[in-house]
Design a protein that fits this description.
This protein has six helices and five strands, in the order ββαββαβαααα. By secondary structure, the chain is an alpha+beta fold. It has a five-stranded mixed sheet, with helices on both faces.
Amino acid sequence: MADLTINGRSYSSASAADTPLLWVIREELRLTGTKYGCGAGLCGSCTVHINGEPVRSCQITLGEVTGSLITTIEGLHHGDRHPVQRAWIEQQVPQCGYCQSGQIMQAAALIARNPNPSDDQIVEWMDGNLCRCATYSRIVPAVRRAAEIATRGGDDV
């Protein structure tokens, strides 16, 4: 049994240690906000935070994350009011929405690391998160807006 801490809650998994974390999250724990995209770590749809760092959950195994703090899109903010989530809604980023949980998790890690990223830094950081609907022109302003919201603070951030 592997013991996991996901979104601040304790879970146990009987899956094999070499099982991709993505499948434990989605199939075993039914946290389906994290999406399967390519299975090769190239699209970013399965991005979660492990100890605060964005990681492609299809490329890391259950055995590698035991004892780590894991955050999925469901746990990013208790009221779905994280600055990135707020900016995504305000800027109307999603089209089909499939990749957006991975996009949001990647952007949230950037804002946590760099509260005032330049457009070039945003593009570089978000590179590798693919959007088949090509909403990239809305993603950069949304990340910039999320940084503004986060910097402004407040009790709902």
